[in-house]
Amino acid sequence: MTTYDNRVSQEIADRLDIVDIVAETVKLTRKGNRYWGLCPFHAEKTPSFSVTPERNMFYCFGCHAGGDIFSFVMKRDGLDFKEALEMLAARAGVKLVSTSGSRDQEQRKKVIEVNRAAAEFYHQILLSRQGGVVQKYLENRGIKQETILAYKLGYAPEQWNRLEEYLLKKGFSQEYVKLSGLIKRNENRNSYYDLFRNRLMFPIFQYNGDILGFGGRVLDDTLPKYINTPETELYSKRQVLYGLYQARQAIRSNNEAVLLEGYMDCIKLQQAGISNCVASLGTALTPEQARLLCRYTENVLILYDGDEAGQRETLRAIDVLAEEALKVQVVTLPAGKDPDDFLEINGKEEFLQYIQNNKLSHIEFKINRYLKEEKTINLEVKVKIINALKKDINNLKSPIEKDYYVKVLAQKMLMEPNLIYRELQLANKRQNPTDRNKTQISRDNIQYGNYSKDEKILAAMLKDEKTFAVIKDNLGLNFLARSEYKNILNIFDQLKGNQEERLVKLGEIMQQEGMAAVYARIVFLMEEINVEEAEVNEFICRVQALKIEARWQKIYQHINFLKVEGDFENLLKFVLNLDSFLNETREGGI
């Protein structure tokens, strides 16, 4: 894996103006020392998206997206940090010198060039007289000429080594052609032949337009129907979604991805204007593909084929997506229909209406599916179905949703809802055992505008060294309720340098730790607040009072426990030694 010196990110950030980068996507208006505009990451009518050029940071007060110039490009384009770094380095004119993997990087670049040349070769043959049969096939499938051009569809001719000859003539070494997976070795003849022959070709694009590999479909009933580029250093089927390059902006705009099974489904739906579609390359959905979707949206609609195999894969995909905390809905097509067929027969309007009328939550889909699989609903089946749904229902954050699905399940299985609740509670306890020694102080979240009291104090500590020292001396660094805020204080305390240098280093660490948005929120607050000494003292007194209250609460609980147990001997000892107990809890924390 290619890695770069940590100092290079700071050099890139210093050379680029975040306002220029953001302004490519957002219309910004200057107000004071900040720029404001409509957030590109959620729908809004009043601008709540702010950019501070002095800090090279952005923050949305609506959806709480935030971070530095790298965070913005990562979120906007669905990139990981390395990809954003490479993109912005090119923009800034900074040469990236990798600390490892330079040979791998060069090899990757060459294989991408091979794939690009191969895609052009296939594409031109499709558009030529030799591709007439394929053109007719696509026409019969309803694929328009502009779609052929947009997706760079191609045709692999029947000859055994036509592509290999073309690529070698273009100056590519056989070694790089072999690494692309486009040719295979014939051991008997000690030669190579083209992997794809007499197939309709689908280039598989990465987010930035690079071609990672290909899928090839036969034009008749020959098996296998589809073959793909084999796994290479560049291409892994598990980590790619077909159509994402074309769909990524629409997915972000709609905040939903429509997940399909096949290439043709994806192309046909996108051609019809349903632009937020991707396909899982004809394989079972993988965790890597689900995480890829997380870069662009929180919502996924599964629209697999209506046959039994498609419905089984839907069940599996639900669990993979839910594991990544994506909200999942499902539409089941009539038996034997796939999205391409259904769209072709019924037209776009009826297709969209069907989707709207037949959306089910993933839990509703599972309930219906499990009940349909059983001939009779006896006690054993009821237990089996509840066990299968326990995790899904317990993972719901809304009590209203949870109550709704419990009642739906109870009604369909002729049970009392409280029995299902009891089973869910038992499962929850087994999954999340209570830590009886947990001693986190629970406090009210007193708001200051859009900020909590804790956030205001944290910002004041980072802004002013004296405030940091006073609060640390009186309360330590673990008094805030949110773990992220505790981490910020403890990391900042360990950094060397003056206040400004420590803040810059802290920002870099927050980016690496995936906490850029949290940190951006506090940085924006630092510019607004001016905490008085009296307010700091009031906060310290309040937290100390809560600690004392928590100590006494613990004492009362222990006394009541000993009373219930009838252990009056230990009760007397405990009361007589209250002073030492209070000292222990004071020193060790609550």
What does this structure look like?
β12 and β13 form a beta hairpin. The chain is α+β, with helices and mostly antiparallel strands and 590 residues long. It is 55% helix and 12% strand. The chain is built from 26 helices and 20 strands. It folds into five domains: 98 residues, Alpha-Beta Complex (DNA Primase, Chain A); 134 residues, DNA primase DNAg catalytic core, N-terminal domain (Alpha-Beta Complex), CATH 3.90.980; 120 residues, Dna Topoisomerase Vi A Subunit, Chain: A, domain 2 (3-Layer(aba) Sandwich); 66 residues; 152 residues. The strands form six sheets. The chain has a five-stranded antiparallel sheet. The chain is globular and about 95 Å long.
**Shape descriptor:** globular
Question: Total number of β-strand segments?
Answer: 20
- How many separate structural domains? 5
Helicity range of the residues? 55-70%
Count of DSSP H/I helices: 26
Structural class: alpha+beta
N-to-C terminal Cα separation, in Å?
45 Å
Taking Cα atoms only, what radius of gyration do you get, to the nearest Å?
30 Å
Largest sheet: 5 strands, antiparallel
Tell me what portion of residues adopts beta-strand conformation: 5-15%
The strands making up the biggest β-sheet line up spatially as 2-3-4-5-6
Mean pLDDT: 86
What are the defining features of this structure?
590 residues, alpha+beta, DNA Primase, Chain A, DNA primase DNAg catalytic core, N-terminal domain, Dna Topoisomerase Vi A Subunit, Chain: A, domain 2, 5 domains, five-stranded antiparallel beta sheet, five-stranded mixed beta sheet, 55% helix, disordered C terminus
